[in-house]
Design brief:
The chain is built from five helices and three strands; from the N terminus they run ααβααββα. It has helices spanning 4-8, 11-22, 27-34, 38-50, 73-102, and strands at 25-26, 54-59, 62-67.
Length: 112
């Protein structure tokens, strides 16, 4: 079985996952939103489903897909080592914005 990294390396699969991250979607909805042909969407969904990254259920005449977050834990675990870099930068930005809020505001219309 391919790793989650290999599966999400393909841009169309990442686009489908991103779309499904916000809500469940039917194949037709994915086609319309991503402007992809149905055979292509079905091919990528099959790979995502076989890898366990998405699951589907039948709803009337359509199949609805949603993300399964568990297989993404592999990616999350790998990214954890890099979060400290992001956290420091976000913390620094927050401190900078706090300092900016405490500075006196320039009067409106005043020329510099």
């Amino acid at each position: 079985m391919e790793s989650a990294f290999a599966i999400i390396a393909e841009p169309n699969r990442r686009a489908i996952l991103s779309l499904l991250a916000s809500s469940e979607r039917s194949v037709g909805d994915i086609e319309r939103r991503l402007r992809m042909p149905q055979p292509s969407v079905s091919k990528h969904l099959r790979v995502l489903r076989d890898s366990g990254l998405v699951e589907s259920r039948v709803e009337a005449q359509r199949r609805v897909y949603r993300v399964r977050p568990e297989p993404l834990l592999e990616v999350d675990a790998w990214l954890a080592q890099f979060r400290r870099f992001w956290s420091r930068r976000v913390d620094a930005l927050e401190r900078h914005l706090d300092r900016m809020d405490r500075l006196p505001r320039a009067k409106k219309g005043k020329k510099r």
